[in-house]
Specification:
53% of the residues lie in helices and 11% in strands. A five-stranded parallel sheet has the order 2-3-4-1-5. It folds into two domains: 3-64, no CATH class; 67-257, 3-Layer(aba) Sandwich (Rossmann fold), CATH 3.40.50. The protein has eleven helices and five strands. It binds adenosine-5'-triphosphate (ATP) and magnesium ion. The site of magnesium ion (MG) has 5 residues, from helix 6 and strand 3. This is DNA replication protein DnaC. It holds the Pfam family IstB_IS21.
């Protein structure tokens, strides 16, 4: 390539805000000449480098912005430890079709059975697939909605949240809410119903959610919307955290207290 052409490519790729085109252009030019690529093949290869790099950095940005408490992937999940769980179902969900269909996922089960791990793993997959994701515990979500409500901006906040393809609500059930939380939460769920996805995790079966939200009627209407288009997945067994500790039961793992 002549020096002028290289300069021109440099200038044009800066103008396009696509700096990797400049690097790829000269690197791939030699390869193209050696391998006898057509002009179209060369152009496609250069553009492909730019798009791949953008996708990867976009995914990293979305993962950082999601606010995950830790990085957990579906690949790290040991399915043998959760024999009741259908591996195929999780792999299928990881494909992200549920996001296109605005379906929800509910992960139920006692402490340490992998609910948060799976929720984060699915969230990371969603971020890679180009979806904006936000993670929070139920307590954090309620605080956020309460704050918007007090500022008189609840409606705007709920509309803004619709721009996220996936909202993850972790730990529904560990801490009971004040009364107005049920109404706030209901508005979030109902605004996303058939528009955008939610992943919820809970240690409690749906029958106990009324107690958590302090309002049986609102909880019932909320659950109705959540499960209408949803995969409800029950995790079972002893906590993974205690796996090597020799402890076999926890007080909160009694059947009447769990989602089983
Ligand atoms: N099947 C598994 N394979 C690999 N790691 C697992 C598995 N299950 C749980 N873990 C790990 O064990 C720890 C606890 O799991 P996690 O936080 O997902 O539990 P949880 O169901 O959300 O529990 P809690 O209800 O107490 O929040 C995490 O570090 C998680 O990565
Ligand atoms: Mg958890």
């Amino acid at each position: 390539m002549s020096a002028d052409t290289i300069k021109q490519i440099e200038f044009l790729s800066r103008a396009l805000k696509a700096p990797r085109i400049r690097d790829a252009a000269s690197r791939l030019a030699d390869q193209a000449r050696d391998a006898g690529w057509s002009h179209e093949e060369y152009l496609a290869a250069v553009l492909d480098r730019e798009v791949a790099a953008r996708d990867a950095s976009g995914a990293q940005l979305r993962i950082r912005a999601a606010g995950f408490p830790s990085r957990k992937t579906l690949d790290d999940f040991i399915f043998d430890h959760q024999p009741a769980l259908k591996r195929d179902q999780i792999i299928h969900l990881g494909g992200g079709l549920f996001l296109e269909q605005a379906r929800n996922i509910v992960l139920l089960g006692p402490p340490g059975t992998g609910k948060t791990h799976l929720a984060i793993g699915l969230g990371i997959k969603a971020a890679h697939a180009g979806h904006r994701v936000l993670f929070g515990t139920a307590v954090e979500w309620v605080a956020r909605l309460q704050d918007a409500h007090h500022r008189g901006r609840l409606a705007e906040e709920i509309v803004r949240l619709r721009r996220y393809g996936l909202i993850i609500v972790d730990e529904v059930g560990y801490i009971p809410f004040e009364q107005d939380a049920a109404n706030l939460f209901f508005q979030l769920v109902s605004s996303r119903y058939e528009h955008a996805s939610l992943i919820l995790t809970s240690n409690l079966p749906f029958a106990r959610w009324g107690d958590v939200f302090g309002d049986q009627v609102v909880a019932a209407a909320m659950i109705d919307r959540i499960v209408h288009h949803a995969d409800v997945i029950s995790l079972k067994g002893a906590s993974y955290r205690l796996k090597d500790s020799g402890i076999t039961t926890l007080p909160s793992a009694r059947p009447e207290n769990t989602a089983e």
